[in-house]
Structure to design on (704 residues):
C-alpha cells in the first residue's frame, strides 16, 4: 500500500476543504483571533499576554491579503498542513510509513484538531508547528548523532519561546530524555547542547528587553490574573472541568486510547529499552501531565497541552498496529474513529449553516457558547456607524468599553474609529493607552453587552454628561443571542480616571539600558560588599598588591599553567600550537583594548566613590569596559581546553576565578567581566577553528 501517496492526497484535499470553509462560514473573529490581529497593529518585540511571533506572522499575512478573516486564518491552515507533514516524517522515522499514515488519520479525526477547530486560531498552530519541528530535529540528532543538528534545535526552540512560554517544556523533554538514556547521556558533556541553549537565549532576548522596559509585566501577567488576590489556592473544580473539556474535544474513546498508550509506551520504552517509543512518550507526556496539574491553580494552557496530544498520536498509532489482531481492541478503535468523524462532520455542517441556536436559552452565564463569541459584531458595527454619522465630521466620537474582548472585536469591524478599553483588568490596553490625553474633551460611545454589562456612569467624573443608553439586540434566525448597550458620553476628561483604570499597575515605560545598568550595579554591590568575608580577603589583597605594582599575577599564573599543559600534551606540535595560543591572546587583547578606549566607561571607584567600594591595594580609575584580566584568562583557558580537555575543571576554576576576583576587589562591573569572557572565548574559538580548517585544506592539497 502506497501510504505516502495517500498521505499527500488527503493532506492536500483537507487543506483545500479548510480554505473552502473559511469562505463558506464567513464568521466573525473569535476573541483570540481579534486580540492577535490587534497585536499585529501594535508591532512590538513582545506583549503582555504572549511573545511576539504570532503578531509578526499575522502582520505578514495581512500585508498580503488585507485585514480580513481569511488573512488571519490563512497561516493556521498552512501551518497545519506542514505540521501534518512533519508529524508524518517523524512517525515514519520512528516506526515506519504505516504508523505515520495512521498518525495523520488520527490527528484529523480528533475534534480538537479537526477542520472547524483549526480555523479559529493562529497562536495555537504556531506552537504545535514549532513543537513538531523541534521534535523532528531531535529525532535526527538521536538517529544520526550529527552534532550540527543541535544548532537547528536551538533555533527552533528559540522561535518556539517567541510563540508561547509553555514551549520551554521542549527543552525539558530533551533534557529528560538524554538524562534517562544511557546511550545518549554523553551529550551532557559536549558543547553542542549548551550552544543550542545559548541560541535559545539570544532568540528570547527581545522578550526579556520588553519585559525590562515594562516592569516584567509579561512574566507576571498570569500571576496578577490568577494569584494576585487569592494566593496559591487549589481549584479542583477547574481541574475536572479542564479534564472534561479534553475528554470531549479529544473525543472520549480516543482520549482514553491516547493516555493509555502513553503509559504503556513509558513502560515498554524504559523497561524494554525501546528508544523510539521513549522519544514519542517524552515529548508528549510532559506537557500533558504538567498543564493538567497547573489547571488546579486555575491556569488553562489549552494549546501547549495540544502539542502533547498531537505527538501522542504517534505512540497511539504504534500501539494500535501492534495490537490490531486483537478483535475487541480493533472493534473499539474503529468504533471510536467513526464516532469522532461523525461528530466533526456534524459540527462542520452547523458552522456552514451559521449555527442556528434555537436550542440555546438566552442566558448571560453561557459565556463560552460559540454563538455569543463570533456572531453579532458586524451588526453592532453597523449600528455604531449609524449613531456616529449623526455627529459632525470633525467631531466623530471615539469608542470605549470596559471589556477587552469587545474592544478587540470593535477595532477589527470599525477600523476607522479610535477604540480604547477602560477596565480595572490589567491588559495590553494599559500599555497602548499610556497617553490618551489627546482624546480630552472629545465625545465617546460606550459599548457593553449583557455578558459584561457596565454603566459608564460608574466612571464618575470621567465624562461631563451621558446620553440615553441604546439597546441593540442581536438575532440569528429569530433567536436572540446577545444584547449590546451603547451610551453616548460627552466631553472626555481622562485626568479624572481612577488609578485602577489606568496603566499605573504596569508603571511608565523604562529605559532598557538604564534598567540593565541598575542590575549591573546591584550585582556588583552584592559581590563587592555583601559577599565579603575574611577567608577571601587575604588572597584577594595579595593579587591586587601585585596588580598595583604593575604585575598581573593571575595572568602569569594562568599563562604558565596553560603553557605547561600544552608542552606536556602537545609535544609534537608544541611550537605551532604555542604560536596559535599567543595569537589568540594577542587578538583578544587588541579587541578588548579597542573597545575600552572607545567606550570610556568609568570604573566602580569613579562611579560610586572610594567610600562606597571595598577595594584593597589596587585603586584604578581608568576605563572599565571590558575586563582585560578576564578576557586574557578566558582566551588562554578556552584555547587550551579545545586542545586538552581532561583538565576542564582547572580551566573553569582559573578563568571564572579571575572574573569573580575583578568584581570582588572593586575593579570591574559584572558586565565588564562578562564581555571580557565573551571576547576571550570567541577569539580563542575562532583561532583554533581557523587553524583546523587551514590544516585540513593543506592535507587535502598535499594528498592530491
Amino acid at each position: 500500500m502506497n501510504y505516502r501517496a495517500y498521505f499527500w492526497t488527503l493532506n492536500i484535499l483537507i487543506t483545500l476543504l479548510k480554505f473552502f470553509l473559511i469562505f463558506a462560514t464567513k464568521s466573525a473573529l473569535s476573541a483570540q483571533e481579534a486580540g492577535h490581529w490587534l497585536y499585529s497593529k501594535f508591532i512590538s518585540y513582545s506583549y503582555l499576554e504572549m511573545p511576539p511571533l504570532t503578531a509578526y506572522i499575522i502582520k505578514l499575512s495581512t500585508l498580503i491579503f488585507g485585514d480580513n478573516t481569511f488573512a488571519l486564518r490563512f497561516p493556521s491552515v498552512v501551518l497545519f498542513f506542514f505540521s501534518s507533514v512533519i508529524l508524518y516524517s517523524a512517525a515514519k522515522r520512528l516506526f515506519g510509513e504505516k504508523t505515520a499514515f495512521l498518525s495523520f488519520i488520527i490527528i484529523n479525526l480528533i475534534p480538537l484538531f479537526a477542520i472547524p477547530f483549526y480555523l479559529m486560531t493562529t497562536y495555537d498552530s504556531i506552537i504545535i508547528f514549532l513543537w513538531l519541528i523541534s521534535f523532528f530535529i531531535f529525532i535526527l540528532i538521536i538517529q544520526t548523532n550529527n552534532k550540527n543538528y543541535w544548532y537547528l534545535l536551538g533555533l527552533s526552540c528559540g522561535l518556539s519561546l517567541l510563540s508561547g512560554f509553555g514551549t520551554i517544556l521542549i527543552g525539558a523533554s530533551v533534557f529528560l530524555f538524554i538524562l534517562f538514556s544511557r546511550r545518549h547521556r554523553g551529550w551532557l558533556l559536549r558543547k553542542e547542547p549548551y550552544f543550542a541553549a545559548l541560541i535559545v537565549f539570544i532568540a528570547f532576548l527581545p522578550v526579556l528587553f520588553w519585559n525590562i522596559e515594562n516592569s516584567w509585566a509579561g512574566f507576571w501577567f498570569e500571576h496578577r490574573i490568577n494569584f494576585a488576590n487569592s494566593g496559591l489556592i487549589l481549584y479542583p473544580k477547574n481541574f475536572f472541568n479542564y479534564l472534561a473539556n479534553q475528554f470531549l474535544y479529544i473525543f472520549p474513546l480516543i482520549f482514553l486510547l491516547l493516555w493509555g498508550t502513553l503509559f504503556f509506551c513509558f513502560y515498554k520504552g524504559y523497561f524494554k529499552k525501546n528508544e523510539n517509543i521513549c522519544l514519542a512518550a517524552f515529548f508528549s507526556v510532559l506537557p500533558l501531565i504538567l498543564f493538567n496539574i497547573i489547571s488546579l491553580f486555575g491556569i488553562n494552557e489549552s494549546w501547549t497541552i495540544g502539542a502533547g496530544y498531537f505527538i501522542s498520536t504517534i505512540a497511539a498509532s504504534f500501539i494500535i498496529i501492534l495490537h490490531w489482531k486483537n478483535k475487541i481492541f480493533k472493534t473499539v478503535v474503529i468504533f471510536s474513529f467513526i464516532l469522532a468523524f461523525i461528530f466533526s462532520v456534524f459540527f462542520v455542517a452547523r458552522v456552514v449553516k451559521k449555527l442556528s441556536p434555537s436550542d440555546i436559552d438566552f442566558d448571560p452565564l453561557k459565556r463560552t457558547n460559540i454563538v455569543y463569541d463570533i456572531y453579532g459584531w458586524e451588526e453592532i458595527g453597523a449600528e455604531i456607524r449609524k449613531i456616529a454619522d449623526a455627529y459632525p465630521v470633525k467631531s466623530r466620537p471615539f469608542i470605549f468599553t470596559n471589556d477587552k474582548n469587545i474592544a478587540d472585536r470593535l477595532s477589527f469591524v470599525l477600523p476607522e474609529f479610535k477604540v480604547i478599553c477602560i477596565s480595572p483588568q490589567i491588559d495590553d490596553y494599559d500599555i497602548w493607552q499610556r497617553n490618551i490625553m489627546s482624546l480630552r474633551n472629545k465625545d465617546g460611545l460606550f459599548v457593553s453587552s449583557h455578558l459584561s454589562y457596565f454603566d459608564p456612569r460608574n466612571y464618575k467624573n470621567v465624562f461631563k454628561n451621558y446620553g440615553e443608553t441604546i439597546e441593540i439586540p442581536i438575532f440569528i434566525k429569530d433567536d436572540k443571542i446577545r444584547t449590546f448597550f451603547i451610551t453616548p458620553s460627552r466631553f472626555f476628561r481622562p485626568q479624572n480616571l481612577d488609578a485602577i483604570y489606568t496603566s499605573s499597575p504596569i508603571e511608565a515605560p523604562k529605559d532598557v539600558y538604564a534598567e540593565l545598568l541598575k542590575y549591573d550595579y546591584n550585582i556588583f554591590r552584592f559581590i563587592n560588599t555583601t559577599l565579603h568575608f575574611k577567608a577571601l580577603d587575604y588572597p584577594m589583597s595579595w593579587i591586587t598588591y601585585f596588580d598595583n605594582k604593575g604585575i598581573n599575577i593571575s595572568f602569569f599564573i594562568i599563562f604558565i599553567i596553560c603553557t605547561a599543559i600544552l608542552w606536556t600534551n602537545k609535544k609534537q606540535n608544541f611550537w605551532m600550537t604555542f604560536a596559535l595560543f599567543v595569537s589568540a591572546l594577542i587578538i583578544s587583547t587588541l579587541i578588548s583594548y579597542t573597545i575600552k578606549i572607545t567606550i570610556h566607561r568609568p570604573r566602580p571607584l569613579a562611579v560610586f566613590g572610594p567610600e562606597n567600594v571595598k577595594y584593597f591595594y589596587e585603586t584604578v580609575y581608568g576605563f572599565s569596559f571590558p575586563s582585560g584580566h578576564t578576557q586574557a584568562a578566558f582566551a588562554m583557558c578556552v584555547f587550551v581546553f579545545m586542545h586538552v580537555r581532561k583538565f576542564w575543571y582547572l580551566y573553569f576554576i582559573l578563568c571564572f576565578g579571575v572574573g569573580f576576583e575583578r568584581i570582588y576587589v572593586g575593579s570591574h562591573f559584572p558586565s565588564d567581566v562578562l564581555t571580557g569572557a565573551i571576547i576571550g572565548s570567541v577569539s580563542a574559538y575562532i583561532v583554533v577553528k581557523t587553524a583546523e580548517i587551514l590544516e585540513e585544506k593543506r592535507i587535502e592539497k598535499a594528498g592530491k
In short: The chain has a mean pLDDT of 82. The longest strand covers residues 479-492.
